[in-house]
Automatic annotation (TrEMBL):
This is GMP synthase (Glutamine-hydrolysing). It comes from Thalassococcus halodurans. SUPFAM superfamilies: Class I glutamine amidotransferase-like (SSF52317). Pfam families: GATase. Residues 30-175 form the Glutamine amidotransferase domain. One of its GO terms (cellular component) is cytosol. InterPro entries: ChyE-like, Class_I_gatase-like, GATASE.
Length: 228
């Protein structure tokens, strides 16, 4: 099964040599699932020939907001709607979660309550899951087809399931401690309160449920119920 990775952002250059780019992180996360991967850097206007160029699509995170005026966002939304209409499964993470919601009629905003950073617990159908978070933007209004399947007190629409068509999550199962620690130092300072960043750094090293979420993604791509 070929999964097309739609890269919507670039990792900090200071971290790439150690952690790879976002598509590399997802390929590592799903390495045991037998998928083939093609990457399209849509943030640099590299798009596939169409929605049928892959058997499934995975949309990455980004430092950009889905509501920002970038020339690559409208064609990405068109691609999402085309894949959705063709029943080609999509997984979206963080920005990917938000852009799928926006493309299908939802609403995304910069959350007045601030940021979620580092190991964060979510209530999911399989029970509580701890996954790294890195976001301020949130889906504040879900599309009509979306069912909320993950939340916490800070982010009430943290995971959305659109039947067999899309499964999207706000947290980052592809992020490890090294990358999050690097984000804190390269992109967090001066943006997120230092007290929150310092607290998140202290929480690194906790057991994460990233592998469980990867299994959810794999089951979904194969047309199975994502939650065991």
């Amino acid at each position: 099964m070929k999964i097309g990775i739609l890269q919507t952002g670039l990792a900090p250059t200071e971290l790439v040599s150690e952690t790879g780019e976002y598509p590399d992180m997802f390929a590592k996360l799903l390495a045991d699932e037998g998928f083939e991967f093609d990457t399209y850097s849509v943030v640099q206007n590299q798009f596939p020939s169409g929605a049928d160029a892959a058997d499934g699509w995975l949309i990455t995170g980004s430092k950009h907001g889905v509501y920002e005026d970038h020339d690559w966002i409208p064609p990405l939304e068109d691609l999402i709607r085309d894949a959705y209409a063709r029943d080609i499964p999509m997984v979206g993470v963080c920005f990917g979660h938000q852009i799928i919601a926006q493309a299908l009629g939802g609403k995304v905003e910069k959350f007045a309550g601030g940021w979620a950073v580092g190991p964060t617990e979510y209530d999911m159908p399989e029970g509580k899951m701890r996954i790294h978070a890195w976001h301020q933007d949130q889906v504040v209004q879900t599309p009509p087809e979306a069912k909320v399947v993950g939340r916490n007190d800070f982010c009430e629409n943290a995971a959305l399931l659109y039947g067999h068509k899309a499964y999207t999550v706000q947290p980052h199962p592809e992020f490890g401690d090294i990358f999050v620690g690097g984000l804190i130092d390269t992109r967090g300072r001066g943006v997120v309160p230092d007290t929150q960043l310092d607290a998140a750094k202290q929480e690194l090293g906790q057991t994460l449920d990233s592998a469980r979420m990867a299994k959810q993604f794999a089951r979904f791509f194969r047309g199975e119920e994502p939650f065991s």
